[in-house]
Design a protein that fits this description.
By secondary structure, the protein is mostly helical. Helix content is about 80%, strand content about 0%. The longest helix has 17 residues. The chain starts with a helix and ends with a helix.
Length: about 100
Amino acid sequence: VVKATVTGLLSEEATLRKNATVLVYNLCLAQVTEDSAVELASALLQCLGETVPEPEAFRSLSSLLQLMKSFTQVSGLAQAIGVDLTQYSTQSERLNTLSQQYQQL
């Protein structure tokens, strides 16, 4: 499931990416291994580095934050790679809140 989710997140096809953001959001509600978390986070960071629609950005950023809170290695990866979330903070209030949380981690 993790591999299919990562493939979908990195896909250029909008429908696959949208469905993958739903999958990753649900995966992050459950327990994932640290290796899976790092793989998912890497794909999420790459996905968020591009412009994605607000609902997908919300699910992706929510998932990334959950992984960062659960795994210090993911938090370190996010700091090392970095992603500019300014484009998302102006899309909606909920994305602005998540962007601020990301900056604090």
